[in-house]
Specification:
- The chain is an alpha/beta fold and 237 residues long.
- It has one domain: Spore Coat Polysaccharide Biosynthesis Protein SpsA, Chain A (Alpha-Beta Complex).
- The protein has 6 helices and 11 strands.
- The strands form 3 sheets. Strands 5-4-1-6-10-7-11 form a 7-stranded mixed beta sheet, sandwiched between helices. Strands 2-3 form a two-stranded antiparallel ribbon.
Length: 237
């Protein structure tokens, strides 16, 4: 059983350009993901797929295998499963080792629950699922409390009589912290190119984490949140 962690990072981002190498507590954002992958006991290999020269430089300092992602796999229209398959094939070709499980990690996620990568790998092995992802409770941003606007007229998305958050149906949101999948699910998706999430297979499982166990950097304010959480963790460790 060989488990490969693939770190995905793009230099181009309309919201926060080059967000994977923005500074966070004196380090580049992506360096935290390097640590998460390297500290995971069940990960056997780590590879970075990116078009960012700075990210490649930082990864090589850590001794990671680096793959310069082709332009057609690094623009806004590129599918991430295509980038994943490219990274897996390149790694297997260079290292002469076939992969069984693929751990997908976004390079712009500096905050993850400690040990979550090993937990995700353990869960997919125990359940025999095609994929495992981390999810967080939706909380007060619930569809039952959302509206469509017809000019300024408010039309509820779901008509209901829920006034207390405790009465809302439990729903969960993908938080981007972790995705583990079998190699077969990733590559079998080529047979179903019209379904964008076919690479997750048919049996998809979840691990519930707390809302702030994961911070996905998309905007400047996310950096402030990540800094606060990492500072708090450092103070209690």
């Amino acid at each position: 059983m060989f488990t490969l962690a693939v770190i995905l990072a793009r230099a181009g981002s309309k919201g926060l350009p080059n967000k994977c190498v923005r500074r966070l507590r004196g380090r580049a954002v992506i360096e935290y993901t390097f640590d998460h992958a390297l500290e995971a006991r069940r990960v056997d290999g780590v590879v970075l797929s990116t078009d960012s020269a700075e990210a490649i430089h930082l990864a090589r300092e850590k001794g990671l295998v680096c793959i310069e992602r082709p332009t057609h796999l690094a623009d806004d229209t590129a599918r991430l499963d295509d980038a994943l398959r490219h990274a897996v094939c390149e790694y297997e070709s260079r290292c002469a080792r076939e992969t069984d499980l693929v751990v997908m990690l976004y390079g712009n996620v500096p905050v993850r629950r400690p040990g979550i990568i090993d937990e995700g790998i353990q869960h997919i092995l125990e359940t025999g699922a095609d994929s495992v992802q981390t999810v967080a409770p939706v909380g007060k941003h619930h569809p039952d409390w959302m509206f469509r606007l017809n000019r300024d007229r408010m039309d509820p998305v779901h008509r209901n009589r829920h006034y207390r958050r405790q009465d809302l149906e439990p729903l969960y949101l993908l938080d981007g912290g972790l995705t583990v999948m079998t190699r077969s699910a990733l590559f079998n998706a080529l047979d179903d190119s019209e379904e964008p999430h076919a690479f997750l297979g048919h049996d998809r499982r979840a691990i519930i984490v707390a809302p702030h166990d994961t911070v996905d950097i998309d905007e400047q304010i996310d950096l402030y949140l990540a800094e606060a959480i990492l500072t708090a963790r450092a103070a209690t460790s």
